[in-house]
Amino acid sequence: MGSLNTDSREWKHLFTLYKLAEMGARNRTIKVSTGYLAGKLGVSQQTASRNLIELEQKKWIKRTITPEGCLVRIADSGAAKLKKLHSNLRLIMEAAYPPSVTLEGILFTGLGEGAYYVTRDKYRKQFIEKLGFDPYPGTLNLKLTSEYDAEARSELETYPGIEVEGFDSESRTFGNVKCYPAVIDNKMKGAVLFALRSHYDSSVLEIIAPTHLRSKLKLTDGHKVKVEVLVLP
Amino acid sequence: MGSLNTDSREWKHLFTLYKLAEMGARNRTIKVSTGYLAGKLGVSQQTASRNLIELEQKKWIKRTITPEGCLVRIADSGAAKLKKLHSNLRLIMEAAYPPSVTLEGILFTGLGEGAYYVTRDKYRKQFIEKLGFDPYPGTLNLKLTSEYDAEARSELETYPGIEVEGFDSESRTFGNVKCYPAVIDNKMKGAVLFALRSHYDSSVLEIIAPTHLRSKLKLTDGHKVKVEVLVLP
DNA sequence: ATTACTACTAAACGAGTAC
DNA sequence: TGTACTCGTTTAGTAGTAA
Question: Where do the structural domains in chain B lie, given as residue ranges?
């Protein structure tokens, strides 16, 4: 979901970069003494100096030392970092729904019908096209136990998702399905399916993935499974 | 210029807040374990836990501990911090010109005409109305010595500023003046004036302030003076 | 004036662990 | 499982100072 590849150590540098941008270093080469920058950052002159050195080593800025201070300009890679932060922040602040919702449930064995539905060709082709993977024939069923998770699921259902169209066969009707890309147990890519069938209530989450999650994640019934659902866009 | 009141220590907390917002804690109460958050932050579970405690002490988040994790929701003051960061970043990234330009020059004594011009009533009333202060009768003149500062001044002149309209008296014409709010030597509020008169070239900066800067800042001719010019909006 | 090195101090971090 | 304490270690920050 476009998360900044930034651990907490990098944020210190991003902060310095942000302050430099405030001084205009994104558009022009600015002249700034390490002492002045230190004041802006709320640190000592020595720390500001080291920060600039580290930023230069990261190639986030171009830097030239003069007797009157440093000539600094933010490089493309530095500007890209700021841009990413800005767009992520805009998403977070302006969207009506969050970029992701994390749910947790207990693994249980369903009626085995998931495999049948998921492998219907008209569904399967759309999964491949719209989700980017060919689903393993079967669904992973999670029982949401806590009140929080059930509520979060209900709310999630109101957010826009990937629409997979239903169809009619000779014998019956296959309804529309709403999908959300998801990360299962922090490791495996997959998707959450909504309204595939109606006989599970809102306390159940159905998941598909390109692989057999039960064996890949060494899961058996009763295991607690964490699902990070990625909301669009 | 609307700078985030954030020293480098607060930045770390802002990072945690940002990650919580990514998880949806701005709109809803989310359930998150300190271990899971730790993974998102790239720190240990203990550090994540401490971060949450500190965020709560700052009143940036509401937090309830349950046996399954923490229920977290970003409080108004926390959301305000994110909002401020976002709007500052938007200004920096989307504006054609930077929020501020810092210049440096050597103090010199002018012809003493500044006091005359500044105290003309039609100018003075506009200064009070548009700059928010009644200027001390006199201007502080700085000679920009380095090539960098002269260039920065030229570029600054192309940015939009506060327009003070000229007028005609019986004897002569008083031209339009463009002003920018400024901070002199990191301490005193004032404004930079452009095109007040034409007999100074582009290597001179004229400054007015509500007080007598020379005495307030203990300045004499030859002193190096730093001016942070604030560009609109 | 500057920058930025070395040596030291303060703060943040994380391992272990209690609850 | 969870959270969060203590405490030893690591890292970041500063003072002094050379260039």
Answer: 8-94, 100-230
